[in-house]
């Protein structure tokens, strides 16, 4: 027997009453929040909070009676998003920042939180400048909420708070709830998607490939580099975003649907490229939007989804948002200057002015509110333009403007409960606990580690293979001197990417040190050459990584925040994809230099030296990743990197004898890959040399190889350390 008992009518939750082995069983269930295909057209009930509360009380009773749930399956589909008393502030010195309106807020309305924290006021104390002040609101499933306001009003900041992405420089207070349950960033990431204002993509992928992110790799087979794309051709890049419960074909179908919905058919197989050297700005915007809606998320946040689009494309994008809301999603979007046509698509409106709420409610009520306050929207005038102009502070009329904005915000505070602010949905304590338990288990990752790994390996491999120029440049950089201009679509063509001045590094070094003999001078020259090998491996690879990875970092960061994959999976897959390059380059470098210098002519010695160089080059890559992660951009990375490398280089055993390292810095030498590399190469070279020609040199000349090692304080016993 099965019987559905409504619990929250406005949230489509239900209790499934079943009988098993003569026992009553209740299953608390909500339809899956995980991606649904768009043919769903569920309408959303919009009962008033009072009506639903009465019903909820009734069902709560039913729940707490003798029907105790024996199994709980809670998958909230219809998500009500609410936020309360959200404040975002940035600390500024009292004398350092003048911001009339927000300072007034502090004087009139509240104490500076930082002062509260310090518990005292002083002339030099910090005051806090609010970016967003006391903002509360609710959006229900089936609603499209537009956040509007002039530039700097706090739209992006509010959206960042709601998605837990606020900059660490800002302090945030307040609470974000899903279906009445306070949530954190991971839970929200699992249920939502965020289209940011910036479009950052892998330039080497096509639009279709970007939207595909892994499903079903075919059996592995050996392939040419050109074939690498085909290896994964059936795996389709999409879907680290989409859950396991959808099959590959459904996922691919969804990708094609989104491509068609957003008018990306024409450029589906074009490389995304870089701004100005790839798909158009509007297409990039639509692609950013498509990347997020491909998953049919329960909650969708969009920051300026229409910026840079023409009016037709903007209407298309907003139409898609409205349709998503119509399908039961909860949609929040900041919009700068919507046309009347786009404005008519919004269900609800949140007007921000100088970080405060000037209005929150149905779009129809907005006209009435402004009318009541003496601001009448002229007929045939775009209401959006009207509200923005009323809430703007025009240069030259700052005092009037701020007074007007403050008057409206204060007035709205008074009528807020009547017009805009609705109570979050009532959820009984037991239901709350059940939802909290379900949400607590919600992982931001939609697919397993293996799928993440395959998708990332595919993408990274494609990036390496599709950019042979980078490989060529680095090979040339290793061998030949010339000046290479990046091609149009290359990642090297990114704005701000330095052009490579290629040098005869390997050949110059080989020729400079050519034909060394085993005498006192030769010992010093060979030792210098060995150290230079390690230094070249380091500088080439570490800074190549910094220049490429820093440009990719914004994509990595965005995908991390969206919970697409785990950091170790990203690192391992990326390193694996680049491994052939980091093996090939040391080979190309070591081959000429080793034999030109005249190092030990034995195959085993050569291969040991090669292995050491490969390890050094990979250690340098990891160092490059570390520098990229701590630098805010490529320029900073390229500036910080050398400064950090120098101490490791000095402790490499060449400039400063290993036995002379100051006591306090001894720990640092164990982190120096220069030392490990240099020492290993030196031991490889000198350990079995039994004669050094010291004829005509003074007594300090080492007579054999072990004496050379002792001179540098290198010890063969710790060769493998
Ligand atoms: N990290 C930060 N540090 C200090 N102030 C900040 C920071 N981020 C934002 N602000 C300030 O908060 C206010 C709101 O910025 P926000 O980016 O939210 O505006 P916006 O409404 O999205 O504007 P736009 O329409 O131009 O995108 C601005 O005055 C901005 O200078
Ligand atoms: Mg913004």
What does this structure look like?
- Residues 1-73 are annotated as: Disordered.
- It comes from Darwinula stevensoni.
- Keywords: ATP-binding, Membrane, Nucleotide-binding, Transmembrane, Transmembrane helix, Transport.
- InterPro entries: AAA+_ATPase, ABC2_TM, ABC_transporter-like_ATP-bd, ABC_transporter-like_CS, ABCG_dom, ABCG_transporters, P-loop_NTPase.
- This protein has a six-stranded mixed sheet with strand order 10-13-14-7-15-16, sandwiched between helices.
- The protein is built from 25 helices and 18 strands.
- The chain is of the alpha/beta class and 721 residues long.
- The protein has three domains: 2-72, no CATH class; 81-440, P-loop containing nucleotide triphosphate hydrolases (Rossmann fold, 3-Layer(aba) Sandwich), CATH 3.40.50; 467-550 and 579-718, no CATH class.
- Helix 19 (520-561) runs antiparallel to helix 24 and helix 24 packs antiparallel against helix 25.
- The structure holds adenosine-5'-triphosphate (ATP) and magnesium ion (MG).
- The site of magnesium ion has 4 residues, from helix 4.
